[in-house]
Write a structure and sequence with these properties.
The complex is a heterodimer of chains A (141) and B (360).
Chain A lengths: L12 E2 L6 E6 L9 E5 L4 E4 L12 E3 L8 E11 L11 E4 L6 E2 L8 E7 L7 E6 L8
Antiparallel strand pairs in A: 1-6, 2-6, 3-4, 3-5, 5-6, 6-10, 7-8, 7-9, 9-10
Chain B lengths: L14 H4 L9 H21 E5 L3 E5 L23 E5 L3 E10 H5 L3 H28 L4 E5 L3 E5 L26 E7 L9 H13 L9 E5 L4 H5 L5 E2 L23 E6 L2 E5 L7 E6 L6 E4 L13 E8 L2 E14 L6 E4 L1 E3 L10
Parallel strand pairs in B: 1-13, 7-16, 8-11
Antiparallel strand pairs in B: 2-3, 4-15, 5-6, 7-17, 8-12, 9-10, 10-11, 12-16, 13-15, 14-15
Helix pairs in contact in B: 2-4
Classes of the chains: A mainly beta (141), B alpha+beta (360).
Chain lengths: 141, 360
């Protein structure tokens, strides 16, 4: 989709690990780096979130590794992450869950699920990265 | 070496690649590149930075000048003394980078791989330092730095036509009231020739402060971009530095005692070394007198604080399983001290100077 935020899987990495929240969960299905995840209520795993799929219209973090179903994946709940192609976006742009499974988007999907925001790293170029902030108490409906 | 943000992950090692017999990593190019940048950094520092200081402000006192008084047998001479000064100040920034990894992923890194990641920080320091140097030289606007201990400091560029007065120039008995070392030219860079020759104009702007004797007597260097080498090389008296692998024939002028400066020494023209250094933007020329005090000073923390002297160094490591973080930092600031040693010309067919966008 036109508004999806592209990513380079091998470059998905937390920028400040000591100022981030990272949790480990079992993967419901095969996952790749940078995919948006939701909690699977039925079995306690994390699966691929989707803004237009009933029950998956929530956001709990992004996958930091590629894993097969049943493997443990580290999930970034909060913190800055590199690897998404956001250089053409504006600072402070909100990032939403996409109608494409696992993707982030610059436009809200069928269900408006806020996932992240474009922020600068304070280098000379003010390099743009994503600040992920998954609200685990939020009920999207 | 390119840099990306993020902690070192399993995607950043070549453990799997090297597990296949017949595959290897080549490090020589990366190591050579780092060595070249380090050498260039050393030269850049020596040319543009006069020294380090703990001071946040320097007052340059001017020498006295003027004429003697004449008297007859009963008169007396009036008392005279030196007067005047100009102030400069220096900021103090805190710039750094961290590298982090987890214990498993780092175990898959070879020593050279880890070194390559760590040296990214050193390369970032060199890039930042060079940019800070050239920003302070090419940007002709005074800046305000709010120092937490000393209040607002005015960080000066080279002489920019402000109210500062300087010692008398050669040929004048009194202070030079207004001095602007940021020039514009009525001709474009494409029209540089013997009649439209910025080297002479710029050299004279340095020599009337520092002297220079006959043409060729001053050790002055002009940095230019590759885009200007054709026109500067076509000047009538341009003497090219010969190919290092050729034996030069008879009756040929060969420049000698070449300057130690970043970039490539192309030759000598109009009493000036012509030096290509592509960090100088196209359509700009930068001239420095190599035997006078360099234009910038580098501020660092007082030694008693034990925070280093502006160099890039490891300042801390944090351990929070499974991550280790190494934090590297340089606390320094750059400002013009000798505001007279440097002339910048914008050769674009306009009489006014424009700050290059890359160094605003």
């Amino acid at each position: 989709m036109a508004n999806e935020v592209a990513l380079t899987a091998a470059r998905i990495a937390v920028i400040d690990v000591h100022n981030a929240e990272i949790f480990s969960f079992k993967a419901e299905a095969a996952l790749t780096e940078g995919q948006a995840l939701y909690f699977v209520a039925a079995n306690g795993t994390v699966g691929v979130a989707d803004a237009n799929a009933s029950g998956k219209q929530q956001f709990r973090g992004i996958a930091l590794q590629a894993v097969a179903a049943g493997q443990t994946v580290d999930v970034l709940k909060r913190g800055c992450v590199a690897g998404y192609t956001v250089s053409t976006l504006s600072y402070d742009d909100p990032i939403y869950l996409s109608d494409t499974a696992g993707s982030l988007s610059t436009a809200a999907g069928t269900m408006t699920v806020n996932c992240a925001r474009v922020v600068p790293v304070n280098d000379k170029d003010l390099t743009k990265v994503l600040y992920i902030d998954a609200n685990w108490n939020r009920i999207w409906a | 070496m390119s840099k990306v943000f993020g902690t070192i992950t399993d995607n950043d090692n070549e453990y799997g690649f090297l597990a296949t017999v017949g595959q290897e990593l080549a490090w020589q190019m990366a190591q050579d590149w780092i060595a070249e940048r380090m050498a260039e950094f050393s030269l850049t520092t020596s040319i543009f930075v006069e020294g380090k200081t703990e001071a946040f402000k320097t007052r340059y006192k001017k020498p006295g000048a003027g004429y003697l008084q004449e008297r007859n047998s009963q008169g007396r001479y009036g008392a005279a003394k030196a007067a005047g000064s100009w102030d400069v100040a220096y900021p103090l920034w805190d710039k750094g980078v961290s590298h982090s990894w987890n214990d498993v992923d780092v175990a898959k890194l070879s020593g050279l791989e880890l070194s390559n990641h760590i040296e990214t920080g050193m390369m970032s320091y060199i890039t930042s330092f060079r940019h800070d140097v050239l920003h302070r030289i090419f940007d002709n606007v005074q800046e305000t730095y709010t120092d937490p201990d000393h209040g607002d400091l005015s960080i000066e560029p080279l002489a920019n036509g402000d109210t500062a007065t300087y010692p008398p120039i050669t040929g004048a008995p009194v202070d030079e009231a207004t001095e602007d070392h940021y020039l514009g030219t009525a001709y474009t860079a494409a029209n540089i020739d013997d009649d439209n020759n910025p080297l002479v104009t710029m050299r004279k702007d340095l020599e009337h402060h520092f002297g220079g004797g006959t043409t060729g007597g001053a050790n002055v260097i002009c940095f230019c971009n590759d885009a200007q080498t054709e026109q500067l090389g076509a000047l009538t008296d341009f003497r090219e530095v010969p190919d290092n692998f050729l034996v030069v024939g008879d009756n040929v002028d060969v420049p000698n005692r070449l300057p130690m400066a970043p970039g490539i020494t192309l030759g000598r023209s109009n009493g000036v070394w012509v030096q290509q250094w592509d960090f100088v933007p196209a359509n700009y020329l930068l001239m420095i007198h190599l035997e006078e005090a360099a234009p910038l000073m580098m501020r660092h923390d007082p030694m008693s604080m034990e925070l280093g002297t502006g160099d890039f160094m490891l300042v801390n490591t944090n351990e929070l399983f499974p991550f280790t973080e190494s934090i590297w930092r340089a606390r320094y600031g750059l400002g013009a001290g000798n505001r007279l040693n440097g002339v910048v010309a914008y050769v674009a067919g306009t009489s006014s100077y424009t700050v290059p966008s890359v160094y605003t």
